[in-house]
Amino acid sequence: MNARFVALLGSINVGSNRLKMVDLRYALEREEFEDIETVAASRNVLFLHEDMPSEGLAEKIAWIVREEFDIDSEVVVMTRSELAAAIAENPFAHGPDAGEEKFVHTMFFLDQPGPTQIKALQIDHEGRGPERIAGGTKALHIDYVEGAGPSKLTGDFITRRLGIRGTARNIRSMKRILAKMDELDSQES
């Protein structure tokens, strides 16, 4: 039985890593991915695939992108419930201290950053800006407060401090992806 997943691709359409989604769709279809759609920007790919662990699918898509397009991309794959859980666990996405959806991000990783790594990142970033940081499940939750553009808390800064690469999405995009997954699943029922 096939299940619906979302793949979040990093390092795509940045600098020289340009990738047309029609080309990616064709490459994925050749590798038994079905019902492929992009949503909330081109780096988010919804698809159906034989039900298997998300990590295996992430490795498969990263391999396809590397082999077919010569792009080394961070790829995180999640089910609907995993994406919903990531939104729910983000302390800056809801409650009285919630930030603006466009400024609240989750940076997803393939590996779990340890509490010592998160604490070191918080200490290294102290005094560099107003951002708020919290660890999550294979994720880092960030409230950019004044926007990600002017922030010194960049993806490169985070990668250097944590020693692992990831790809980030704001809460607004994550909710749009979740809604699209629900819409596609209801059409299939």
UniProtKB/TrEMBL annotation:
Q: Which Pfam families match?
A: DUF1697 (PF08002)
State the source organism's domain of life: Bacteria
Cited Gene3D superfamilies: SP0830-like domains (3.30.70.1280)
- Cited PANTHER family: BLL4334 PROTEIN (PTHR36439), DUF1697 DOMAIN-CONTAINING PROTEIN (PTHR36439:SF1)
Q: What is this protein called?
A: DUF1697 domain-containing protein
Q: Which organism is it from?
A: Pontixanthobacter aquaemixtae
